[in-house]
Structure formats: C-alpha cells, structure tokens
Fold this protein.
Amino acid sequence: MPNLRRRPPVTAVQAPPQRVAWLAGAAVTALAVDVASKSAAVAWLPGRSVDLFAGLALRLTRNPGAAFSIGTGITPVFTVVAVAVIAGISWYGRKVTHRGWAVALGLIAGGAAGNLVDRLFRSPGLGRGHVVDFLHLDWWPTFNLADSALICGVAVAMWLSLRNVPLSVPAADDSAVSTSAGATGER
C-alpha cells in the first residue's frame, strides 16, 4: 500500500558556510591580487618594458575589448556581461556544496570583478574603461592576473565537469519525495 502521508516540502539546498567562504575567499583574493598588480603596473611600467625570463615580459597596455582585443568597439557590453557573471555566481554560489566548484566559481567571479573594476573606473569613463594588461609572452597576447584567474577557474570547472562532480548535492529527502510523489501525485 502506498504511503499517503504528506511529506514536508523539499527545501532548497544550501551550501555549507565553509563552501561559501571558499567561494568568497577565492573571489576576494583574485580581485585583490589583480587590483594591486594593475596599480603597480600603472605606477611603474609606463614607457618601459621589463624582460623577466623565458619570453615573459612586463609591458603596460590598455585593452578596450575582451580577450585578444576582440570587440574593442563594444566595451559597455563587456561591462554588462561581467556584472551578469558576478551576479549569477553570487546567486548560485549559495547552492554550491563542493569545495572545488566553490573555488572555481570564486576565481571566475574574482577575475570578472577585477576586469569590471577597470571598466568602471578607468579612462575613458564609467562602463567604458580600458582594462590594464601587463603580462606579455612572446607567443601570447598581453594579459593580466584577472584573466589568469578566469582561465584557472574555467579550467577547474571543466575538470570537475569531466569528472562528473556535481555543483551541489540534492537535499537528503529528494529521493523520498520523488518516490512518494509518484504514488500520491504530489511534489
């Protein structure tokens, strides 16, 4: 005989506080390191190039577009996209229950925030600012630490996806509700 007793409604999965802390910590760290490194580059690098090693040099450039200077005429669109990415990660971050996903999303949010700071507060104006890039490889376009955080975050997310690691685990009573929902028609 099916169980017709009403079950409590399934509540949204909430990330453990430490997972939210990992996400926020990764984001704040990526943002702080990026802002500090760009401030140093703007102060010390105008008009000079510093060769470091193995084709890596420090050269100050300003990029109105996205990666590889794509879309240099639509800087405000990149501002909106960065805000949307940060908002989406902030909203969804409450549900992340895996530390690796928390760090990956934090790096993506921090990298997006680092470049957003430039777009909001650098010349030529609000929402149209050019991103400061200063890391130059002989074989790669000039980039910054926000770009590096974004790439590392995406790489970790891809690795976790390939390993089928879920962003969050379902609530403990989801299977019981699904089973009883079939019997009672409720959900």
